[in-house]
Amino acid sequence: GAPQMEMEPSPGRRQQQQQVINATHATVSITTSAAPAIAGLGKIESTAQGVNGQNKPKRKAIHVPTYSCNGGLDTKFNHFARHARPSHLHGLLTPDEYEREIQTLNDKIKKARAKGVDVALLATGALIVLPLALWGARHGRQVKRRRTLIEEGVWEFNERMGMDGRNVRMVWNRAKVVGGGESYLTIEEAEEGRGGENKNKFD
Question: Pairing relation of β-strands 61-64 and 184-189?
């Protein structure tokens, strides 16, 4: 029954409690400040902001594959839609349109392929130096002509699409450095009103 008196903690005990609390806060502060130092965290946050509408959506594009022909001396564009990447063509062209357009381009660049004389020069070049030098000169001209014919074919495709009001364009992506990578052909979704514009990528 006797009333109990609450005793105030001694100054030493109060100081000890305060030290514990301060230590706890210090720990939290250190943990919080260390989090942004995680490698790549800034890039992840930037990407997340882009997903929320900051960046433009990636344009649809079809990669046109190639394969060797003429004994390995030349290449052709594979005109079968099932071999395109992606094979559903993003709905930019129908399979029939794709095959017709790529076959038209193949027929155009056929003029720049190696001939029988090139095969003969290359075969005899292993024994005699002169034929190999002649083959090299001819091959260089053929490569240059092939590039010119591809660029013409790309321009003609884009003209046809533009006249039909289609926002589709063909792009010949030339390697930036000789020997630094292969050139490749794409069919892409064009920006509004630019379907017929010739947009070859020259460097």
Answer: antiparallel
